[in-house]
Amino acid sequence: MSLTEIDRIHALLPHWVESSRQQCSYGKVASYIPELSKSPIGALGIHIIDASGHSVSAGDTEISFTMQSISKVFTLILALMDIGEEAVFDKVGMEPTGDNFNSMLKLELVQPGIPFNPLINAGAIAISSLIAGASSTEKSCRVLDFLRLLSNNDSLSYDLDVYRSESDTANLNRSMAYFLKDNGVLEGAVEDVLDVYFRHCSISVTCADLAQMALVLAHNGKNPLTGEQLIPRRYVQIAKTFMITCGMYNASGEFAIQVGLPAKSGVSGGILTLVPGRYGIGLVGPSLNRKGNSIAGVALLESLSREFDWSLF
Amino acid sequence: MSLTEIDRIHALLPHWVESSRQQCSYGKVASYIPELSKSPIGALGIHIIDASGHSVSAGDTEISFTMQSISKVFTLILALMDIGEEAVFDKVGMEPTGDNFNSMLKLELVQPGIPFNPLINAGAIAISSLIAGASSTEKSCRVLDFLRLLSNNDSLSYDLDVYRSESDTANLNRSMAYFLKDNGVLEGAVEDVLDVYFRHCSISVTCADLAQMALVLAHNGKNPLTGEQLIPRRYVQIAKTFMITCGMYNASGEFAIQVGLPAKSGVSGGILTLVPGRYGIGLVGPSLNRKGNSIAGVALLESLSREFDWSLF
Amino acid sequence: MSLTEIDRIHALLPHWVESSRQQCSYGKVASYIPELSKSPIGALGIHIIDASGHSVSAGDTEISFTMQSISKVFTLILALMDIGEEAVFDKVGMEPTGDNFNSMLKLELVQPGIPFNPLINAGAIAISSLIAGASSTEKSCRVLDFLRLLSNNDSLSYDLDVYRSESDTANLNRSMAYFLKDNGVLEGAVEDVLDVYFRHCSISVTCADLAQMALVLAHNGKNPLTGEQLIPRRYVQIAKTFMITCGMYNASGEFAIQVGLPAKSGVSGGILTLVPGRYGIGLVGPSLNRKGNSIAGVALLESLSREFDWSLF
Amino acid sequence: MSLTEIDRIHALLPHWVESSRQQCSYGKVASYIPELSKSPIGALGIHIIDASGHSVSAGDTEISFTMQSISKVFTLILALMDIGEEAVFDKVGMEPTGDNFNSMLKLELVQPGIPFNPLINAGAIAISSLIAGASSTEKSCRVLDFLRLLSNNDSLSYDLDVYRSESDTANLNRSMAYFLKDNGVLEGAVEDVLDVYFRHCSISVTCADLAQMALVLAHNGKNPLTGEQLIPRRYVQIAKTFMITCGMYNASGEFAIQVGLPAKSGVSGGILTLVPGRYGIGLVGPSLNRKGNSIAGVALLESLSREFDWSLF
Over pLDDT 90: what percentage of chain C? Predict the structure, then answer.
C-alpha cells in the first residue's frame, strides 16, 4: 500500500514539478543576503525518501543551497539534547507570533522579554547561545557534526561565500542580538553567538540531504535504515509541533490548513517536510512568495498533500 | 485495544481529576463578564465519549456553563458551510497572533486589516456577520439549531443572565466591532452582528454536550453513532487545524507541545477537545490561568495525553 | 510699529495667498466624512485681526466651513473652566504622540490607559464627557454658547449635513469611544458623549470667526476690544502649549520648527492660529497634505512667520 | 527690572533648593550605566547667569557630572552647521514620539524608517554620524571643541570611567544603531558612530558650564558677554523648538505646560534650560523621576517659572 503510493508519486511527480514551476515567475529570489540573489529563480526540485530507503526525485535536485532557517529545527533539537527542555524554554517561548520572522516589535512589547519561539530569528539566535561548547568554533562544529550524522553525509559543509555575505550584511540580526543581550537572554559575547548562527544558516545541502534529515524526524528520531535512535522521541515531538505552528514564517497557519504537514522553510528557497511514519522530503525553489517561502515549493506540497491526503488534521 | 484504553481511563480518571483539581487555587474565575464571576472556582469535571457511545466521566460533570469562545469553532464551520472557504477567508485570516484574544494591536498594524484568524474575538465577530440568515434572530436560531444537532440535545439553549451581562458590559468587543466596520470587514449593523455573537457565546452546555460535539469532529464530521455526515470533512479539517494553532488563546503553542490535541477553550472554563478517530472530550474547570484557560483542565489534559500518548505530533 | 506691520501685511497678503494657493493641487480634500468631500479644493482664505480691531483678509474668506478638530481647543478650555486642571488631567495626558490623530495603537499600549493628550480624537472624546451639563443637549448648548461668546457671533450654529454625515460614518471614533469606556475613561453613555463630540466638530464658521476666537487666546483670555476676561489666563496658557506640541496632528513638531506659533487645524481645512499679544488669525484651505493639514494654509503661514519673524522660539 | 528679578532670585533660591531637595527621596539614581549609579541621590544644585555675566547659584553646584542626553542639543547644532537643515532632516524627523527615549517600537513602524527626532537616542546616534570629520576621533574632537567654546571652559573633558561604563553596557544603543544601519540611516561603521555618541554623552560639566552654554542659546547664538555670534540664529531656533517639544523625554508635554521653557535633561540628573533673551540655567539633581528627569530639578524649575512667570506660552 505504501509501496503503491510511492509508485504513484514516482509516476506523477515530474508532471507536478513542471506544473508548479510556473509559479516561479510570480515570486522573487531573496536579496537581503547579497550572495543569495544569485540563486536560479526558475529552479524547482524535490526528493522524497521512505523508510526502506526508496526514493523519488524530480526537477532540479542537483542544486546545492544553504539551509538558512531550516537549520533552526536542528539547533533547537541539539540545544534540547544538550541542556533539556526546562533550560531551553527559560530563554525562548512556545508561541507563534503572526509577525515577520525578523520583527522586533514583539520583543519589546511582550513580557518577560524572551523571543516568542525558537524558529523566529530572535529565538534561533538565543538557541545558538545555548548549544554546548567551549567556544563558538566548538559549538559550530557540534552543529555541523550533528547535521552530517542526520543526513548521513560526512561531506556536508559551509558555503563560505554565503556565510561571509550574511555575516557582513546582517545588521538587523545584529540589532536583534544586542536587544536580546540587553534583555539578559543571550549568554556570551554577541558576535560569538552570531557567528554560530551565521555558520549553521550557511551549511550547504541538496534536496536529498534534507530528505534524509526529515526521514529521521518522520520516524520519531530513529534512522529507519539503520535502526539507530539519533534523537530522543520527545525532542522530535517538540520540533514537529513547532514546525506546524511556526515553521513557515507568518504563513504557518495557512500552510497548516492547506498542507497540514510539519515543515520548515528557508530564504534560500529550501523546504524540509515530512509525512509522519513515512516520508522524509526535501525541496528547493529559490523564487519566494511575499511571506518568504518557496512559491513553487508550497504549490507543489499543496498538490501532493491533497492528492495523497497527507494532512495531519 | 481501544476498549482496553477506555477501561484504563475509567479506572484512572477519578484520581487524576482530584489531583488536577488542586491547581484551581492558583487560578481565577473570569470576572470581565460579571455573571461569570459566580462560577464555582473549585469545580472540575470531564466527560469522554468514544465512537461506540461508551462514555467515562469524572468530577463535577453536572455543572452547566456557557460555551463562550468554544462556540467560535462551530460558527466558523457553519459560515464555511453557508458561503464556502473563499468567501470566509476573504474576511478573516489563517494565522495565529501571539497576542491576547482581545488585543486590538494587530488589527491596526497588519494589512489588509482583517482579523488574524476566526478564533480571536475580532475574527469570531467577523464570522458572526457571515452566517446566513435574513436577520440577527434568524442567524442566531441557525447557530443554536446546528449545535443542538451536533450535541444531539434538542433542549440546548441560552443562559440569558450571561447573555445580558455580556451584552451590557462588552465595550471592548463593541470597540473591536466598530473598528472592523470601519475597515469594511463587517456586513450589516454592528449591534446586530454583536447580538449574534453574544448569543452564541451564551449557549449553555454540559461536559457531555461538548463531548458529543467533539465526537463529530473526531470522526471527520460524521456522527459515529448514527453514521450521518453532519459536516463536510474538509471543514472539520480546517476547524481542527485552527484548534491546534489558535484554539487555546496565546497559550496555543504551549498546549500543542504539552498536549498536542485540537482544542478550544472558553472563559467559562470549558474546554472541548478530541482524539482524532477516537474520542470526543468535554471538560469544565472555571478557575483560569493567566492566559484564560482552565488551569486544572489543562493540567488534566496534559496528564491524559502523556499517559496515553495522544499527541498528534 | 505694530501698525506698520499690519500695513505691510495688508499690502503683501493678496500676493502670498495667490502664491500659496498653487499648493492646493498637491493635496486632497478630506473624504472620510462624505459631506466634507464637497469642499472646494482650490480655495484659500485668511483673516487677521489685531487688538484694536483692525483686520486684513485675503482670498476666499466668504466660505463657511466646520470647525472639526479646531473645536477641541475650546472644549478643553471649557472643561478646565468647569472642573479644573486636576480633574481634566485625570482623564487625559499631556504628551504628544507622533501617531496619527485617529490611531488606536497608543491607547492600548500605554499605561494607565488614558488618551495621550486632549487634541487627539480619543482625548477630545474624553473631554466631551467632562463638560458640565445634565444631558448631552445641555453640554452641546454650553459649547455652542461659549464659541458664540468668543467669536462675538450670536448666529454661530451647526452644519447639520456635516453633523449627520459624521455621526453616520464615524465607526472609528465609535470604536475609540467604546475602548475608552472599557478603560474607565468615559463618563456616561457612549453615544451621548459622541453626540456632544460630533456636534462641536460640526459648528460652522468663517475665517473671521476663527480670527476673533484666536484674538482672545492671543490676549491671554481677554477680549482686547471689550477688555472682558473671558477665559482665565492659566487655561489659555495650557491651551496654547498644547497647540504648540500637538495642534497640527503628527506634523506638530515640523510646524513648530517652520512656523513656531500655537495653532490648531481641522480636516475641513481650517486653521486657527495666533501671534501672542498681537493677532488672531483664521484661515481655510480644504486641500489637505498627507498629515491632514491645509497644504496651502501651512505654506502661507510659513511665509508670514518667516517674513515677520513670528516664531516664539 | 531684570536686575531686580535676579536680586529676588538671589534671595529666594537657597530656600527653594532646600524645599525642592526633599523630592529626591521619591526618585532613583540612574542605574543602567553602572558608573552613574554612584551619583549622590540627595544632591541638588543650580546656577543661573544673565547677559551681563551676573550669576546666582545655590545648592550642590560644585558637583561634576556627565552631559549625557544634554549633549544631543549641541551635536544637533553642530551637524546643522556642518551640513545644513536639508541634509540633517533627511536622516532624522521633527516629531515628538510619546515613547520612552530608548524605545525601538517607533523605529520599526513608522515610514520612512528614520528616527522621529534628534533628541531621542536613535536620532542622536544618527546625528553623530553626520558630524563632519575624517574619523570618529576627529568628530569627537570637534564636538568637544565646540562645547569648550560655548561653555567658555577650555578644560572641559571626558569622564572616562563613565565613557567606558556606557560603552561596555550599551547593548540597547548598539541594537538601535544596527537597526538604523539596516535602514540606511547611518553613515560609516556602527562602532565608530557609537564611539562618537558615547564620548559626547560622557563629557563632564558643572552647573556653571551648562548655564554658560544655555546663555548662548538664550541670546540666539550670540555670547552676550563677548558679542560673538557662535551659532547661526536659525539653528538656535531649531534647537529651542526641539527642546520644547522633545527635550524632557516623554514628559516634554507636561514640562511645557508646567514650566514652559526650552530645556534638555540627561540621565545624570542634569538639566540645561534658558529664559529667552535673559538667563542661561544649569542644574543637577541625580535622583530621577519615572520618566528619567531630575525629580527635584523639575520641581525647582516649576517653582521658578511660576513665581517669575517665565513660561513662553
Answer: 87
Residue C313 belongs to some domain of the structure: no
For residue C165, what is the enclosing H or E element? helix C160-169
Q: Considering the domain boundaries, does residue C100 fall inside one?
A: yes
Given B182, B201, B220, the domain boundary residue is B201
Same domain, C120 and C240: no
Q: Which residues of D touch A172 (CB under 8 A)?
A: 178-179, 182
The residue range of the domain holding C275 is 2-68+205-308
CB D147 within 8 A of CB D71: yes
Q: How far apart are CA D172 and CA A185, in angstroms?
A: 13
Residue of A158, A197, A235, A279 marked active site: A197
- D 104-163 → C contacts, CB under 8 A: 105-106, 109-110, 116-117
Question: Chain D contact for A32, CB < 8 A?
Answer: no
ipTM for the complex shown: 0.94
| Whether residues B299 and B236 fall in one domain | yes
Cell digits of residue B133: 440568515
Q: Are residues C19 and C118 in the same domain?
A: no
Q: From CA A105, how far away is CA A116, in angstroms rounded?
A: 11
Cβ atoms A44, A58 nearer than 8 A = no
In a domain, A9, yes or no: no
Q: Are residues B109 and B196 in the same domain?
A: yes
Q: Measured between CA atoms, how close is D73 to chain A, in angstroms?
A: 26
Is residue A60 a contact partner of residue A43, using CB atoms and an 8 Å limit? yes
Q: Which long-range contacts (CB under 8 A, 24 or more apart) does A101-106 make?
A: A101/A69, A101/A249, A101/A250, A101/A292, A102/A172, A102/A173, A102/A176, A103/D108, A104/A175, A104/A176, A104/A179, A104/D104, A104/D107, A104/D108, A104/D179, A105/B109, A105/D105, A105/D108, A105/D109, A106/B98
If one counts the domains in chain D, the total is 2
Half-sphere exposure of D47 (CA within 13 A, CB side): 22
C-alpha cell at C185: 475613561
Q: Which string of b and e fits B196-234 if b means at least 16 CB within 10 Å?
A: bbbbbbbbbbbbbbbbbbbbbbbbbbbbbeeeeebbeee
**B8 domain residue, yes or no:** no
> What phi and psi values does residue D289 have, to the nearest 5 degrees?
-85, 180
* Contact check, Cβ <8 Å, D174/A171: no
Return the SS3 of C25.
helix
pLDDT value, residue A113: 80
B179 to C105: CB separation less than 8 angstroms, yes or no = no
Interface residue C37 vs chain D (CB under 8 A): no
Q: Do C76 and C172 share a structural domain?
A: yes
Are residues C257 and D94, on separate chains, in Cβ contact within 8 Å?
Answer: yes
Looking at the structure, tell me whether residues C36 and C134 fall in a common domain. Answer: no
Q: Do A245 and B260 touch (CB under 8 A)?
A: no
Co-location of B185 and B74 in the same domain: yes
> pLDDT, tens digit, for every residue of D256-303?
999 999 999 999 999 999 999 999 999 999 999 999 999 999 999 999
Residue of A176, A182, A193 to mutate when probing chain D, most D C-beta within 10 A: A182
Whole-number percent of chain D with pLDDT over 90: 87
* pLDDT tens digits along D161-203: 999 999 988 999 999 999 999 989 998 999 999 999 999 999 9
Tell me, yes or no, whether C193 and C220 share the same domain: no
For residues C8-22, average pLDDT: 95
β B222-223/B228-229 pair status: antiparallel
> In CATH, what number is assigned to the domain containing residue D264?
3.40.710.10
Which of C181, C201, C221 corresponds to the end of one domain? C201
User: Is D168 in the A-facing interface, judged by CB distances under 8 Å?
Assistant: no
B171 CB within 8 Å of a chain C CB: yes
- Give CA–CA dist B263/B246, Å, rounded: 9
Q: Which of B69, C59, B185, B236 is nearest to A311 (CA)?
A: B236
Q: Which amino acid is at C163?
A: Y
